[in-house]
Design goal:
With 363 residues, the protein is an alpha+beta fold. It has helices at residues 52-59, 160-171, 177-184, 199-213, 217-223, 225-237, 239-242, 255-267, 275-282, 286-297, 301-318, 326-332, 338-349, 353-362, and strands at residues 7-9, 18-20, 47-49, 66-71, 78-85, 88-95, 98-103, 109-115, 117-122, 125-130, 134-138, 143-147, 151-157, 188-191, 193-194, 197-198. The model is unreliable at 1-33 and 245-250 (pLDDT under 50).
Length: 363
């Protein structure tokens, strides 16, 4: 059932304390909708509503659990967008001031504020999400969240096994369980800036990609964005493992390991290639893999993969038959965005892919 009572909520100095009265539970508001902050994935696929019932339904969208909610302002308005990338569940939402109680939540969630602030109480302690400053990791399965005016945020279902796999690949350590336990199994605020890196800006760039491709889930999966997000979460949750001075990271890299990963890349250019997968194949840490490619090829692994794909596409276009098309050849070489492919191809070979294709078909 919904909870209805008078609350006094104290926010940090940047958001003054206030007392809000809530409406009767279940009342459908007919008043003019309050303007909400924009969702980071855009509003075209969002669900919105003006009642408590629809708010409860949207909050649990993609995130199972028991929820009690109560409005904390005279108007009720909310909107949400739920997206899956592989096995990763993502929920973006914006809402007027609300109290949301969650119980028996069978997942660990990472909440990233994109506008405004909110206060989360878990295990009798208060934590704050502040846009551009702090996110919040909830692992206890029970919480009370109070959102302020103009709040919007993105919530990720963070799987422990996936995080541990990503950490092993990035660090090269055989066992990362102690790090995962410390990162994954405690409620805490998570800084959105570390060692000069703005994770807020980095995550927003990922949100822009999701917005661009949310109607094409296969393309999102091919880009391996879920792997990129987990790698970013690992750096956010355990910055001490990654964000250090790499100027002395000149350890000798076994060339056999590097050759092995290069052969693997060449054999799988038509498939998505995540860095954590390459680290696992090579047995090298993220730092060692980057260093090995930089020393041998003068570029990063990602740049080398792009160069190999461009070369493969160029060779296939030169041998194309009358039935071949630029898009089909580009997709078979692992490219998912035709505009980016055309631009990179022109920079590399000095002509458009269609020109190479036409020359081959006219021979």
């Amino acid at each position: 059932m919904y909870v209805c009572k008078v609350l006094v909520v104290e926010f940090p100095d940047s958001l003054p304390a206030g007392t809000w009265l809530c409406k009767k539970p279940g009342l459908c508001m007919k008043t003019k909708a309050k303007k909400l902050s924009a969702l980071p994935f855009g509003d075209r696929n969002s669900l919105s509503g003006l009642s408590l019932d629809s708010a409860a339904e949207s909050i649990s969208l993609g995130f199972s659990g028991d929820y009690d909610i109560a409005p904390l302002s005279a108007e009720i308005h909310h909107k949400t967008t739920a997206i899956n990338i592989g096995e990763m569940h993502i929920l973006a939402g914006a809402l007027t001031p609300f109290l949301v109680k969650g119980d028996r939540l069978p997942f660990t969630s990472l909440g990233i504020p994109t506008s405004g602030q909110c206060c989360v109480t878990a295990n009798k302690r208060k934590y704050y999400q502040r846009t551009g400053h702090t996110a919040f990791l909830l692992s206890s399965g029970r919480s009370e969240t109070v959102t302020g005016d103009g709040y919007a945020g993105v919530y990720f279902d963070v799987q422990k096994s996936r995080l541990e796999h990503t950490l092993r690949a990035m660090t090269g350590l055989e066992s990362t369980r102690k790090f995962v336990n410390s990162a994954h199994e405690q409620d805490r605020e998570v800084p959105l800036r570390a060692a000069g890196i703005s994770f807020d800006k980095l995550l927003r760039s990922y949100f822009a990609q999701i917005d661009l491709l949310q109607d094409q889930p296969q393309a999102l999966a091919l880009l391996g964005l879920d792997d990129t997000l987990y790698r970013t979460f690992a750096m956010m949750l355990l910055p001490e493992l990654f964000l250090i001075d790499n100027s002395k990271s000149n350890k000798k890299v076994d060339q056999r390991n590097l050759e092995q990963v290069c052969n693997y890349i060449q054999a799988n250019l038509d498939k998505p290639l995540a860095l954590s997968e390459l680290e696992h194949i090579s047995g090298l840490s993220a730092r060692s893999l980057q260093y090995g490619f930089q020393r041998r090829f003068g570029c990063t692994p990602t740049q080398w993969i792009r160069e190999q794909r461009l070369t493969l596409a160029h060779n296939r276009l030169k041998l194309a038959t009358s039935c071949d098309r630029v898009t089909g050849i580009a997709l078979s070489c692992g490219f998912t965005h035709m505009g980016v492919f055309g631009r990179d191809y022109y920079v590399r070979f000095g002509e458009r892919p269609s020109e190479t294709l036409a020359r081959a078909q006219n021979c």
